[in-house]
Amino acid sequence: KTCRLAILGVTGAVGQEMLSILSEKKWPSNNLRIFASAKSAGKKFPFRETELVVEQLTPDSFNEIEVVLSALDNDVAQRFIPIAVEKGCLVIDNSSLYRLNQQVPLVIPEINPEDISSQNGVIANPNCSTIIALMAIAPLHACYPIQSMIVSTYQAVSGAGIKGMEELTTQTHDLQMNKIPQPAIFPRQIAYNLIPQIGSFDEEGNTSEELKLQNESRKILHHQDLQVICTCVRVPVIRSHSESITLFFEQDLDVSQVKVILSHAKGVKVVDDPLNYEYPTPLDTSNQDLIYVGRIRKQPIGNQTAISFWCCGDQLRKGAATNSIQILESYLKDYA
Ligand code: 2RA
Q1: In the list 9, 57, 299, 327, which could disulfide-bond 35, CB 3.0-4.6 Å?
Q2: Which of 17, 94, 129, 316 has the most ligand 1 atoms within 8 A of CB, as the residue to mutate?
């Protein structure tokens, strides 16, 4: 199924990924328009057998549009998404603006597609680290409810967009040339380093990125009592996020049961033969949509059952653009 579709913020890392994935999926080029700021208007991008021209995003951009894939940052999204909704568009939004709004469904199509039915003009795309973690957690939680979880993330620089990716490559080059790197996008040097801060800190010392994973997981799993301890770290990796996850279950279960559930989970690939160096790495998962899970093991923690594992996923694809387009496909299949 198709519709008159627009990408907003097409020149950014996520917008570019949306264009590339729609081209892979053979979306009809006559049903797609691409928008960005005035400075990018007129730019051309190849799309399937043709090329598309960037139009300046204005309040009148939505007159002929049915569905919007928005890759706009929060400040610009705030201006334009209400206009698009008011003009009758459905907006699938990648910003964090509406994710915790009770009136707005927050959707990972493999996990809670039914929540799309409650949309009133906006469907929110979850944060990338939430999507990648829940793709492994949700199928386990569906069989064996979890009480709490501890998550440490190792997030690629693509999460900070094109400028974030450029900063890593530039700093790495500078260091090889014995030049002192100048941090700009990230608060500290990222080349050959790790930064335990993504977003801003609250009064308890948690970052906004860590609170996103906690609050979005509770909403998507419909599990408001879920206890989450999360630490989000920026790492010198280009475009795949990695996450170390420990789940605490009410009931006892074994590694073999976990592997069976994950092996059947949609969008997940179990890669777990550590003695042969078979485990997920960010280079394995980049430029494809599956979430790889490995290092699956049971932890002896008192009278609780704890299962730990390691997962990796492409931040720009399944973490953002692919998930948004899967929401579009679910909407067109079941509601349009
Ligand atoms: C990051 N998840 O990785 C945030 C926003 N994409 O920077």
Answers
A1: 57
A2: 129
SS3 213: helix
3-state SS track over 110-124: CCCHHHHHHCCCEEE
Tokens of 39: 């400075």
CA nearest 242: which of 192, 200, 284? 284
CA distance 294 to 334: 34
Residue with tokens 């559930």, as numbered in its chain:
261
Give the largest Cα separation in the chain, rounded: 63
Do 295 and 310 meet the contact criterion of CB atoms below 8 Å apart? yes
Q: Is 248 helix (H, G, I), strand (E, B) or coil?
A: strand
**269 phi/psi in degrees, rounded to 5:** -130, 125
Q: Rounded to two decimals, what is the model's pTM?
A: 0.98
CA distance 135 to 137: 6
Q: Tell me, what DSSP letter sits at residue 262?
A: H
Angle in degrees, CA 82, 220, 108, rounded to 5: 75
The span from the CA of 316 to the CA of 319, in Å, is 5
ipTM: 0.97
The 3-class secondary structure across 158-180, one letter per residue, is HHHHHHHHHHHHHHHHHHHCCCC
3-state secondary structure of 244: strand
Can you tell me which atom of ligand 1 is nearest the CA of 320? Answer: 6
Closest ligand 1 atom to residue 155 Cα is 3
326 lines ligand 1 (CB under 6 A): no
* Residue 135 three-state SS: helix
Tens-place pLDDT, residues 240-271: 999 999 999 999 999 999 999 999 999 999 99
Q: Which residues of 242-277 are buried (b: 16+ CB within 10 A; e: fewer)?
A: bbebbbbbeeebeeeebbebbeebebbbbbbeeeee
Q: Active-site residues: which are they? A: 128, 241
